[in-house]
């Protein structure tokens, strides 16, 4: 309970900030956007990763406060980058608690407008566990609304839960992210390759983009490219970085 109390205080006092990990298009080598990942700048313990505070996401008020802080932080960073003449795409992770709120899509749209961010610059990432928790109908509806407003929806950690593919693929989405557990051994395990190949085929048939996560080596990148997966994210491209380091990263990478 000590942690949850500290987390609530930290959220309220701006200690939790977005860091950014780039997504790269393999075909062009271009950085096509970033995933925002929460980092806690703890006054005593230093920079904490979500693993240290992920339990807090079971608490509805904390989960929603985190999403709020992340969304407003991303909007501020996008405005900062815009001053330097740089526009990019950012995806933000949200929870089932957020997507059950009837006004989530409308509120987010209003916030984006107020911050001068275009809806097509924004993606909402949801895990399969999130979308298949209770109130799936309500959650699907919110995702549809977001897409109608011009935002994109990405299915994170794809293939790690127990949902049927048909169920998952009927969700309103624009892309799916193949989990690190598959990309890790894609060059060495032919079964993993078969799974990735079939996910890529299904995604193409349903007009979904595919992002492979957790790419750490050139060999993994080449193996995924050969399987038709064109967008990659992982330490091989770059580790998550603070918002103020993104401009310098972009200058180095072009
Ligand atoms: O780098 P990484 O340790 O940042 O993230 C670990 C896990 O925490 C991932 O599953 C990621 O989806 C989740 N996560 C990171 N940032 C956020 C966030 O802002 N909101 C939510 N809900 N989950 C996040
Ligand atoms: O939202 P999601 O579960 O996809 O969050 C991505 C998580 O994976 C974050 O914790 C991020 O820091 C981490 N991550 C990103 N790239 C790599 C990578 O190449 N290798 C490993 N081991 N972890 C990564
Ligand atoms: Mn994610
Ligand atoms: Na993932």
From TrEMBL:
<protein>
    <submittedName>
        <fullName>Diguanylate cyclase (GGDEF)-like protein</fullName>
    </submittedName>
</protein>
<feature type="domain" description="EAL">
    <location>
        <begin position="1"/>
        <end position="254"/>
    </location>
</feature>
